Amino acid sequence: DSGVTQTPKHLITATGQRVTLRCSPRSGDLSVYWYQQSLDQGLQFLIQYYNGEERAKGNILERFSAQQFPDLHSELNLSSLELGDSALYFCASSVVGSGGEQFFGPGTRLTVL
Amino acid sequence: LAKTTQPISMDSYEGQEVNITCSHNNIATNDYITWYQQFPSQGPRFIIQGYKTKVTNEVASLFIPADRKSSTLSLPRVSLSDTAVYYCLVGLKTSYDKVIFGPGTSLSVIP
């Protein structure tokens, strides 16, 4: 158990819908990262927050947005969903930056039908 | 984070030592080298991290030559449960840069 929690574990929805994925980092970790992993794309970095502020952005689509709240939990919002958004979404946390040890959550499996 | 290159796949028999090498020619002075392991449908798990020479923990060893342009993850006496994808990352511990997990090395352990 990494100490990072993600909800829900599974999510099935239809194209065009909007969903919110939630992540609670390890106690004491200020950085939160979101990754997308689909079969044909590997582990893709989406975005990083540190203590509530966005710090780094990867190939995150404009239909996706995220935020980190004062209690340090984070949410990833995915809207206008397409079939290609079906993937595993992982959240990770670390004490400081991305070059240090990141602790990954169990992931949310999103299926868009 | 610096770009890294690893073999795409490797096979090994149970009980053998496995060495996975990662090239990182553009490693910066203060960069650390970190290895992760990922099983299917699970998040990556930290294995080991080092800066220079050799680091060993209960799971693996990490060998880093003096020029630091490459590193080798060594898994002693692998078992079937070591079948996984192994990723090498290079960067500052305090980096807030884009994180790049390459395709990693898919290790298959054969009975």
SSE pattern of chain A, N- to C-terminal: EEEEEEEEEEE
Q: Distance N terminus to C terminus of chain B?
A: 36 Å
Number of strands of chain A: 11
The structure class of chain B reads: mainly beta
Oligomerization:
heterodimer
| Average predicted confidence as pLDDT of chain A | 93
- Kindly state the percentage of residues in helix of chain B: under 10%
Rounded to the nearest angstrom, the radius of gyration of chain B is 13 Å
**Shape designation of chain B:** globular
Largest sheet of chain A: 7 strands, mixed
Terminus-to-terminus distance of chain A: 31 Å
Total helical segments of chain B: 0
Q: Whole-number average pLDDT of chain B?
A: 92
What is the CA-based Rg of chain A, rounded? 13 Å
| SSE-based structural type of chain A | mainly beta
Low-confidence stretches of chain A: none
Write the layout of secondary structure elements.
The complex is a heterodimer of chains A (113) and B (111).
Chain A: E1 5-7, E2 10-13, E3 19-24, E4 31-38, E5 42-50, E6 53-57, E7 64-68, E8 74-78, E9 87-94, E10 103-104, E11 108-112
Parallel strand pairs in A: 2-11
Antiparallel strand pairs in A: 1-3, 3-8, 4-5, 4-9, 5-6, 7-8, 9-10, 9-11
Chain B: E1 9-13, E2 18-23, E3 32-38, E4 45-50, E5 53-56, E6 61-64, E7 70-75, E8 84-91, E9 105-110
Parallel strand pairs in B: 1-9
Antiparallel strand pairs in B: 2-7, 3-4, 3-8, 5-6, 6-7, 8-9
Describe this entry's structure for a reader.
The complex is a heterodimer of chains A (113) and B (111). Chain A is mostly beta strands. Chain A has strands at 5-7, 10-13, 19-24, 31-38, 42-50, 53-57, 64-68, 74-78, 87-94, 103-104, 108-112. In chain A, the strands form 2 sheets. In chain A, strands 2, 4, 5, 6, 9, 10 and 11 form a 7-stranded mixed β-sheet that branches. In chain A, strands 1-3-8-7 form a 4-stranded antiparallel β-sheet, with no helix packed on it. In chain A, strand 7 and strand 8 form a beta hairpin. Chain A starts with a strand and ends with a strand. Chain B has no helices and 9 strands. Chain B is mainly β. In chain B, the strands form 2 sheets. In chain B, strands 1-9-8-3-4 form a 5-stranded mixed β-sheet, with no helix packed on it. Chain B has a 4-stranded antiparallel β-sheet with strand order 2-7-6-5, with no helix packed on it.
